[in-house]
């Protein structure tokens, strides 16, 4: 049995990370923290209910955003993506290096973008 996701984050791919930081902090009052690991930097913040919001600056569109990203606490991203593909799930972005770990993107049956992320410290396979 494959491990289930641990928690979820909403990820936004934005055109101007500095403008995004100003809007969410100054206008909406959400505290965001600058993170290293992507250029120029990326942002993260949590709402009171524990939902994490993550912002990356990217040129062009990388799928539809915001995207719901599932965190894999125990790792195993390669196994999970292979199992999804075997079940006919459309894999948009195969497992690739991401800030702090590994990620992959796929579509649900209605075409909504979903993703997986795991820490680089966890094993990519569990089998």
TrEMBL record:
Pfam families found in the cross-reference section: Glyoxalase (PF00903)
Entries under Gene3D superfamilies matching the protein: 2,3-Dihydroxybiphenyl 1,2-Dioxygenase, domain 1
Residues covered by the VOC domain: 6-119
Protein name, as recorded: VOC domain-containing protein
Organism name: Pelagibacterium luteolum
């Amino acid at each position: 049995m494959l491990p289930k996701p641990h928690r979820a984050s909403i990820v936004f791919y934005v055109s101007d990370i500095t403008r995004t930081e100003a809007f969410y902090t100054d206008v909406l009052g959400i505290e965001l923290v600058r993170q290293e690991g992507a250029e120029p930097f990326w942002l993260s913040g949590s709402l009171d209910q524990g939902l994490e919001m993550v912002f990356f600056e990217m040129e062009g569109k990388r799928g539809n955003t915001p995207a719901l990203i599932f965190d894999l606490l125990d790792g195993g991203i390669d196994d999970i993506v292979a199992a999804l593909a075997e079940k006919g799930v459309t894999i948009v972005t195969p497992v690739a290096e991401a800030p702090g770990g590994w990620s992959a993107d796929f579509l649900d049956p209605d075409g909504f973008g979903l993703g997986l992320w795991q820490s680089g410290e966890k094993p990519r396979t569990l089998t």
